Amino acid sequence: MDMQIDEETVAGLRQAGLVPADGTIDCRPLTGGVASDIWLVQGAKAPFVVKRALAKLRVTADWRAPVARNASEVAWLRFVAGILPDCVPAILAHDPKRGFFAMEFLPPDSYPVWKNELRSGRVDADFACAVGTSLATIHASTARRIDIAPQFNEDSVFRALRIEPYLEYTATKHPQIGDPLRVLGAGVLGRHAVLVHGDISPKNILVGPKGPVFLDAECAWFGDPVFDFAFCLNHLLLKCLWAPAYAAAYAASYDALAAAYLAGVTWEDAAALEARAAALLPALLLARIYGRSPVEYVEDDRLKAFVRAFAIPLIMSPPRDLSMIRNAWMTALRNDGIAP
Ligand SMILES: Nc1ncnc2c1ncn2[C@@H]1O[C@H](COP(=O)(O)OP(=O)(O)O)[C@@H](O)[C@H]1O
Ligand SMILES: [Mg+2]
User: Which residue's CA is the nearest one to ligand 1's atom 19?
Assistant: First the structure.
């Protein structure tokens, strides 16, 4: 990451009145990003965050994405502010020409990152429940709003950002299940039902005093709600490999998130949505090990083989409910001596 903010962005911040017209800018890069430059800036009034999308993502495999996704992120944050204002940071400025936006800074002492909380064993099922409820509210409030679709990423961009790197790339690595993986990807891409965030991961959720705050909406797309739902559940399963001592707590959070989300599904039959999520989830599990953006904490060959042996049979014959996957996952973790 560049240590200094670029001149173009500084010019835009001056124009927006967020920093003084001259003099040096007090800023430092915020850690964690692979897709964007992101800085914490000491503004004239208060600290704020500036985010600018990168043309080439910082992951091992070459992975490029159009920078206009920055505008999709702003549109998602603004749209959700009208539904659940406490669930997003406020936007302070948007400069589509220079390709950046500025938002309120939510300090980590009162807004820790959920991923860090999970890792440290602070695993609160009530919080997971709130994530499920908020996500369902966002989906329900945007159901059938095809009129808003043009504000967000096009299908081709969502495919390039999510479906290709995860499902299609993984299909090339596992030809024996290539067809079902591609069918799952096409199924997601073919459904235009709600406003999808596209990266509902614990690293993009802050644990705020009033509940979850969602960040990093640059994949936002009008599409299939199942993607957000299964994507987030997948992270709770994967955390069992990261900190096995808390596996039972992660499973309880998985249950809480799933139940809360499904209770909020008003736009379609909840059982049908659950069946789609149960079909997609094993594919996402495999994709976080063999896709273009593998999770950093599953590097051990034994763990990789474990995920492969678990996921492939479920991709070949998909289960219909999420509790079956959870129970099978916990049993497999115990049988392999990975978790107590
Ligand atoms: N408004 C904010 N307030 C506080 N921290 C933030 C804010 N925006 C981003 N961050 C921190 O920076 C990290 C990276 O930001 P994110 O939007 O997720 O960028 P990337 O697309 O690069 O992952 C987040 O995980 C979070 O820790
Ligand atoms: Mg992020």
Answer: 33
**Per-residue pLDDT for 78 more than 60?**
yes
Specify the CATH number for the domain of residue 182: 3.90.1200.10
Model confidence band, residue 1 (pLDDT cutoffs 50, 70, 90): very low
Angle between the 322-335 and 270-290 helix axes, to the nearest 10 degrees?
Answer: 40
Spatial CB neighbours of 44, under 8 Å, sequence gap ≥ 6: 17, 18, 19, 20
Instruction: Express each pLDDT in 261-293 by its tens digit.
Output: 999 999 999 999 999 999 999 999 999 999 988
Q: Which residues contact 65 (CB under 8 A, 6 or more apart)?
A: 35, 53, 55, 57, 157, 160, 161
**130 C-alpha to center of ligand 1: Å?**
20
Q: Average pLDDT of 125-151?
A: 98
Residue 22 structure tokens: 């001259």
> How does the average pLDDT of the chain come out, rounded?
94
The Cα–Cα gap between 93 and 143 comes to 28
200 lines ligand 1 (CB under 6 A): no
CB 203 near ligand 1, within 6 Å:
yes
**Last residue of a domain, which of 78, 104, 130?**
104
What's the token pair of residue 335?
A: 């049988």
Q: What's the mean pLDDT in 240-266? A: 98
Q: What is the CATH number of the domain that holds 29?
A: 3.30.200.20
